[in-house]
Every structure is written in C-alpha cells, then in structure tokens.
Amino acid sequence: MDFYLPPEGCSYRMAVVSMKKQYPGHAKRVMFGVWSFLRQFMYTKFVVVVDDDVDPRDWQDVIWAMTTRMDPARDTTLVDNTPIDYLDFASPVSGLGSKMGLDATSKWPGETTREWGTPIRMDDAVRERVDAYWDELGID
C-alpha cells in the first residue's frame, strides 16, 4: 500500500492510494478509511484508489488507471454534507461540503458483469529492441 498527497492538492485535499485489492468493494472501504483515519484527512475532498501496479506519484499512471479501469457512474462515490476545511471557499457552506472517491482499480466479479482484461506489457528484451531501433531512426 502507498499513500500520496500530491502538492497540487494543497497538502491534504487530494489523496492517491495504491493498494493490493483483496475483495469486491475494497477500494470503497479504503476511501472511507482515509476519510476517517486521522482528523486532518476528514478534510480530504478527493480520494483516488488504484491497484498496486500503479505508481500513485506518477500522474500518467494514475490517469491511465482512471481512464481504463473506471466507469464514472459505477466507480464514483459522492458524500454530501460532510465536514470540510473551513478555509476551503469552494464549499457551499463554511465547514460543510462534499467528497469524491474514485475507484480506479481493476474490477472483480460482483463489481462488474463483464470479463475483466489483463494488462499487456512488453518484456524488457522487446522494449530494448524497440528503443535501439528508435535510436537508429533518430526518434526520442
């Protein structure tokens, strides 16, 4: 498990968590765990949960997981009228606002009726051959 508070998220307002999923619904449980773990994290507005094959500190990885492993209706959790930072002027009421959890993990039976795909990765030998060929062609 890895936990990252990106600086773009103003310290604690956004968290990205990578985890080894153990059962259907596990990502949602992690979201609520983040919001209740430490007093400061009850003010975290956005929690993105990804599988442990995704680097939470690499935005390209995180965005890839969000766009390939999420259905917006199924995988977005909204919590309304919940404590929020008094200094967060985006909230409609001082001290109360909403939170959003995004489940960008691979789906298990019970979370989808479709067969879930397996990520395809180039092995190191193929990657090295392609890189060498690109060098020959002058491609960066």
TrEMBL record:
Q: Which InterPro entries match?
A: UbiD, UbiD-like_C
A GO cellular component annotation in the UniProt record = cytosol
Q: Record keywords: Magnesium included?
A: no
Q: Which UniProt keywords apply?
A: Lyase
Q: Which residues form the 3-octaprenyl-4-hydroxybenzoate carboxy-lyase-like C-terminal domain?
A: 2-104
Q: Which of the seven top EC classes does this enzyme belong to?
A: lyase
- Example of a GO biological process term: ubiquinone biosynthetic process
EC id: 4.1.1.98
Any GO molecular function: 4-hydroxy-3-polyprenylbenzoate decarboxylase activity
Q: Output this protein's name.
A: 3-octaprenyl-4-hydroxybenzoate carboxy-lyase
Q: Which organism is the protein's source?
A: wastewater metagenome
Gene behind this protein: ubiD_2
